[in-house]
């Protein structure tokens, strides 16, 4: 039986004195006025920008100062090769899509474009663009009152721009339901029973009676239904059970792998926690439409690391991170298909930008916005293919440049949201969800 702390109840389910409240979230969800079939997206952000030419776009014939030590390995799709450090992903390439020519990345450590698809230096409406999950929650609402449409498994990092940008002009009621910080602690109530929670509901109704007497607009009465839904979520076991991976068979947890959530990689990144991918699958299975998570730290410039050790060269870090990444991402994709979710759930894996073709004199690669890479899976897409190509040093897109708008239009399409959909900004002006009213990638849909 899930329960909530008094502090958590007042913040999440109570009257609320500003900021996000659970009734507000439910009210915004209901405002969409319609439901669709349960399509979903799991969004995996690789914090700091992964090295595309060492992962999915290797150039073995390039000069040594570009190619590095890794060699490509054949996959189960004829003619498609990826890094030899990813044998598990190579065996399921028929279920994957590699985009090698994503262009238009911004150059800074700023996750805003990763989460909403809009370049932060282009014109932005007042309040900012909403991230994908917030837009989906607004347009489609929850599939189940006990499971928020948009849930975030992202850890808060000490480098602010790495964190999710938020709901933008849609307002805080459409922010993600966050479960990795204080909200997660509140999902287990120590000493508060359902009976005591019912007593608090009675008390809240008493407060509402006072508010109604002074509320000529009737808004207090209108909020009653949403407050009742909030209580329903607080007393439901569905969300808490979805977050409890101890309910999974040991062999499943082992297949994904585990990491220490207390260790923020390189000090200001996210922790390397493969179990977040398993939790994301459980949330989607429970009814979530969009689940976001941040994974590890991929900003490998070389030289000394945060602890002052001189073993922070990019290839040492890749030998450490690549096997865990191969294991958990392949486990997620295989798990989704095994459980009948492969055609309904889209997986997307990406970072802010690519890395420089030339390896630096301190054995690292720096920021490279000229071309980026993304890994996709599931969602009913035409998988088992590579889209686009770069030059001989993986520095520029030479065929089929893919814009961020196209990538995000594909995600919305997979969720059942029509191309060209708009949402009103703070002034009431309709805004396209994707840049330049882009359309889904023709190769995938």
Describe this structure in words.
The protein folds into two domains: 1-31 and 190-236; 35-187 and 243-437, Alkaline Phosphatase, subunit A (3-Layer(aba) Sandwich), CATH 3.40.720. By secondary structure, it is α/β, with parallel strands linked by helices. Strands 1, 4, 5, 6, 7, 8, 11, 12 and 15 form a nine-stranded mixed β-sheet that branches. A two-stranded antiparallel sheet has the order 2-3. It has a two-stranded antiparallel sheet with strand order 9-10. Mean pLDDT is 85; it is low at 1-21, 32-36 and 210-226. The chain is 33% helix and 15% strand. The relative contact order is 0.21. The protein contains 16 helices and 17 strands. Helix 2 crosses helix 11 (224-235) and helix 14 (275-286) runs parallel beside helix 15 (314-338). It has helices spanning 6-13, 22-31, 52-55, 64-67, 87-91, 112-116, 132-140, 182-186, 194-213, 219-222, 224-235, 238-242, 250-256, 275-286, 314-338, 404-414; strands at residues 40-46, 72-74, 81-83, 96-103, 150-152, 177-178, 290-295, 345-350, 354-355, 367-368, 372-378, 385-387, 389-390, 397-399, 402-403, 422-424, 430-432. A hairpin with a 6-residue loop joins strand 13 and strand 14.
* Largest sheet features: 9 strands, mixed
Q: pLDDT under 50 segments (min length 5)?
A: 1-21, 32-36, 210-226
Helix content: 25-40%
Level-1 CATH class name of the largest domain: Alpha Beta
The CATH superfamily name of the largest domain is Alkaline Phosphatase, subunit A
At CATH level 2, the architecture of the largest domain is: 3-Layer(aba) Sandwich
Which class do the helix and strand fractions yield?
alpha/beta
CATH topology descriptor of the largest domain: Alkaline Phosphatase, subunit A
Number of strands: 17
Ends distance:
42 Å
Q: How big a fraction of the residues is strand?
A: 5-15%
Radius of gyration: 22 Å
**What is the domain tally?**
2
On the 0 to 100 scale, the average pLDDT is 85
In DSSP terms, counting alpha (H) and pi (I) runs of 4 or more, how many helices?
16
Oligomer: single chain
The shape, in one word, is globular
């Amino acid at each position: 039986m899930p329960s909530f702390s008094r502090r958590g109840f007042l913040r999440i389910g109570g009257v609320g004195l500003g900021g996000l409240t659970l009734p507000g979230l439910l009210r915004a969800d209901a405002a969409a006025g319609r439901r669709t079939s349960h399509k979903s997206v799991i969004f995996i952000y690789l914090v700091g920008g992964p090295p595309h030419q060492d992962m999915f776009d290797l150039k073995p014939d390039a000069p040594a100062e570009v190619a590095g030590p890794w060699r490509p390995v054949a996959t189960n799709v004829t003619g498609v090769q990826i890094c030899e450090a990813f044998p598990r992903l190579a065996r399921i390439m028929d279920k994957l899509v590699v985009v090698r020519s994503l262009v238009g990345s911004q150059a800074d450590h700023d996750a805003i474009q990763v989460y909403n698809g809009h370049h932060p230096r282009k014109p932005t409406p007042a309040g900012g663009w909403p991230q994908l999950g917030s837009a989906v929650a607004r347009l489609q609402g929850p599939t189940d009152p006990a499971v928020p449409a948009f849930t975030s498994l992202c850890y808060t990092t000490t480098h602010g721009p790495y964190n999710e940008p938020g709901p933008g002009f849609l307002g805080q009621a459409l922010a993600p339901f966050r479960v990795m910080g204080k909200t997660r602690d509140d999902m287990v109530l120590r000493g508060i029973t359902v009976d005591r929670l019912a007593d608090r509901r009675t008390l809240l109704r008493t407060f509402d009676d006072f508010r109604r007497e002074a509320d000529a607009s009737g808004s207090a009465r209108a909020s009653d239904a949403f407050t009742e839904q909030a209580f329903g979520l607080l007393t439901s076991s569905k969300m808490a059970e979805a977050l409890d991976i101890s309910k999974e068979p040991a062999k499943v947890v082992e297949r994904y792998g585990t990491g220490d959530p207390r260790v923020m990689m390189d000090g200001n990144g996210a922790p390397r926690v493969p179990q977040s991918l398993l939790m994301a699958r459980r949330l989607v299975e429970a009814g979530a439409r969009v689940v976001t998570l941040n994974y590890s730290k991929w900003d490998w410039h070389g030289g000394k690391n945060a602890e002052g050790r001189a073993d922070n060269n990019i290839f040492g870090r890749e030998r450490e991170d690549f096997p865990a990444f191969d294991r958990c991402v392949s486990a997620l994709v295989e798990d989704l298909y095994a459980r009948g979710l492969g055609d309904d759930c889209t997986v997307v894996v990406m970072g802010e930008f690519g890395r420089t073709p030339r390896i630096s004199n301190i054995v690292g690669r720096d920021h490279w916005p000229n071309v980026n890479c993304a890994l996709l899976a599931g969602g009913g897409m035409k998988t088992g293919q590579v889209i686009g190509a770069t030059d001989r040093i993986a520095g520029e897109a030479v065929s089929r440049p893919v814009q961020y708008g196209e990538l995000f239009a594909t995600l919305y399409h997979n969720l059942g949201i029509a191309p060209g959909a708009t949402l009103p900004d703070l002034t009431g002006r309709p805004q396209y969800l994707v840049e330049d009213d882009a359309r889904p990638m023709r190769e995938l849909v």
